[in-house]
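TA notes. Do not distribute before section.
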Amino acid sequence: MPHPPIRIPGTTPFDGEQARKGYALNKMCFSFNDAANRAAFLADEEGYMRRYGLSDEQAAAIRSRQVLQLIAAGGNAYYLAKFAGIFKLDMQDIGAQQTGMSKEAFQAKLRDAAFQ
């Protein structure tokens, strides 16, 4: 008998429902593997989002640059990293946003955890 999914308060699991919801957003973010696509996005963000058919929620999340909003809109962390890279953000910047910490505080927390 399958077990019910474990829900962790404050998290959004990337399951089949989120994958379907975020398809357009994640497809657009995947396109950022190509430098020409990153440049096209920066030149006309609104047009680029329309080209991929983002929902209003997804477009608002892109405009906000807030990782938790992007995840709620169906974004997958691996694809969102492509988007964050356009703005020279790395996974530690993303982790800091997700935890509400500064990047420096987040890095210190990671270092402390590594030496325990």
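Switch to the second chain here.
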Amino acid sequence: MNAFTRLPDLALRTYGGSVVAANDESFAEREALIRPGPAEFRPHTFGAKGQVYDGWETRRRREAGHDWAIVRLGMPGVVRGVVVDTAWFRGNYPPYASVEACAAGGHPAPEELDGWVEIVPKSPLGGDATHEFAVTDPRRFTHVRLNIFPDGGVARLRVHGRVVPDPAFLHGLTVDLAALENGGFVTACSDEFYSSPNNVLAPGLARNQAEGWETARRRDGGNDWLVVALAGPGRIAVAEIDTANLKFNAPGWASLTGIDAGRVPQPDDGQAPSPDDDAWFPLLPKTRLQPDTRHRFRLDDDRRVTHVRLDIFPDGGLARLRLPGTLIA
């Protein structure tokens, strides 16, 4: 597994992504490309168009050309890698694929997009397989276009990268400094046995336990924790710790500490303040939590913060962590 797959999937439907156009979806709908979770398959399940697939599938081409689908990223940013998954497509997968990207302001219609650049060259694909392609282009993109040659089916398209929000919607406003969509990300974590810690920073509400962060059961007397790099240096006004859907495995208590590390790292450069650094200061003391509950706490702390450490005691899961505040220089 490439390191880039640990970064957020910028195209994910639950992160606001959308498959805004495709030239063909005769056998299976384009929207499946960005669904959360792996593709499912039930053999010998036939509809009016043949075997039902959890993916995007086009008709057999009898003319020159190739098929394509355009995805608007739910969280625009710098793409570090792309995954093209042909799960369950064995006799009907495309033998080749490429990926292009572009950046557009506002809310353009698909036909208004231009300036496409190739970020993954035309590359061979296999059937029922996961294909990972690293991307080195440093530019910020808002849309990607998957090209398949000449036709066939793709189960999932993942576009992993670093979120780069529009600064016009951050500075001077009260925003969630921890949110993935604003550029926050988890730099370190004690345990991610059941699910990714970045889930707690995802947009929207968690629909189930799998859409939050959950650790294994601790047997050593310690506690679990994660460190969040904020969207930028800021002052935090409120902390929201949400245990929604976690009825029997929520933490008993939680605390928050902050640090001004000077520089906020990029999510894939491996730089983060040590969780044991003496410069950490308290934001929220160890506080009791309730299961399946959204907890909100005023912090009233004017200190500059670049990272926040969340400790849960002793273990368990969280649905979301929100840290509304304002960015400062």
